[in-house]
Amino acid sequence: MFHLPKTTISGPPVSLGLFALLFWLVLISPSLCQNVTFTRGQKFQIILLGIPDISKMPLPPTDAPVWDIDLFDNPTATIQALKAAGKIVICYFSAGTAEDWRDDYRQFAAADLGKVLPEWPNEKWIRTGSQSIRSIMTKRIKLAADKGCDAIDPDNTDGYQNDNGLNLRNTDAIEYMRWMQKEAAKYGMKIGLKNSLDIVNDLAPIMDFAVNEQCAQLSECDAYAQFLALNKPVFHIEYPTPLNAQAANGVSCTGSGVDKGSTILKDMTLNGIAYYCDGSYVDTPTLGGTSPPRPSKSPKPPQPPRPSTSRPPVPSSSRPVSSLRPSTTLRPTPVPSRTSSAARPPTSTPGNGGGGGCKSKHWDQCGGNDWKGCTVCESPYTCKGVSPPYYYQCL
């Protein structure tokens, strides 16, 4: 039973109504247990480019109980509005890399930084066993709790599968995830495992859900059998090309092991657009985010499934770089919010000299629907379609 302490108050009288309000605020503090339940097959939406526009509530897809959004970009008001609408909110952050645009980047010690991710020059692998790194992640997990997140989606925990420069091993990732699970549990939050198929079976008993990218394309979805047997959802993202309703008839939705997961078909920008395996489509209204430029990564060609977690840990350098799988959620520069899903040609055709004669810098936007800015890039860069016709970028 929760009891308020006896307090002597001097000064102006305070109404019982104010006491009741304060008491209620304590009870609904976002740091307390959220009591959410994850179950196999839950429909979800994931938006990491921009933030859901809560001024347009109820937001589609209204039948998706789970939403995965960026921890840093989304204010508390957005998270609380989604929760008030009955949504389970998962908050995404990178737990395995240092991103130089984050507010806490200066806290990362140089000794804890590894190699730059080839596709993301703003990002470096980190030494996950470092106490300094654990301190940073402790603060991030607390931030998620303070904002009211129901769960966390820590990305890039599979550095051991990449040329990381830190000799990370799969045993490091297992220990790191166990530590984060305990930290999240202190606030009543759930946690999921992102990709990291080599350690799925080791962590399935203590993880609340899994998030996977491209397991259908890579013929790896069967690796999640234990998660599904435990009635835990596998939030499965595919990036089919082209992205349309017909993609639901392809391997993204028909591949082995896909049927029991929670599959969503997305553009690599991870904006508000989504298709589902039943052929349905949504374009969730969003507002521009705050993340810096991040070029899109092309999907890898299909590969045979990797061995199970029973194999001994090996240094990441034992694998040629060319065989590495996607290791991080794909996120380019934010674009203006969209309220229409119609595919229109760019308002300003990239490279036509529009935009008042100005030139965009490397990574800047240079075209797309409703774009009114520069459409020519500074040399030696060219304006390329990242998600045409919606978004073009100087690359």
Automatic annotation (TrEMBL):
Bias-annotated ranges (Pro residues): 292-315
Any GO molecular function: alpha-galactosidase activity
Signal as UniProt keyword: yes
Region (Disordered) residue spans: 286-359
One example of a Gene Ontology biological process annotation: carbohydrate metabolic process
Keyword check for Phosphoprotein: no
Compositionally biased intervals (Low complexity): 316-329
Gene Ontology terms: cellular component: extracellular region
Reaction equation(s) it catalyzes: Hydrolysis of terminal, non-reducing alpha-D-galactose residues in alpha-D-galactosides, including galactose oligosaccharides, galactomannans and galactolipids
SMART domains: fCBD
Record-given protein name: alpha-galactosidase
Species of the source: Ophiobolus disseminans
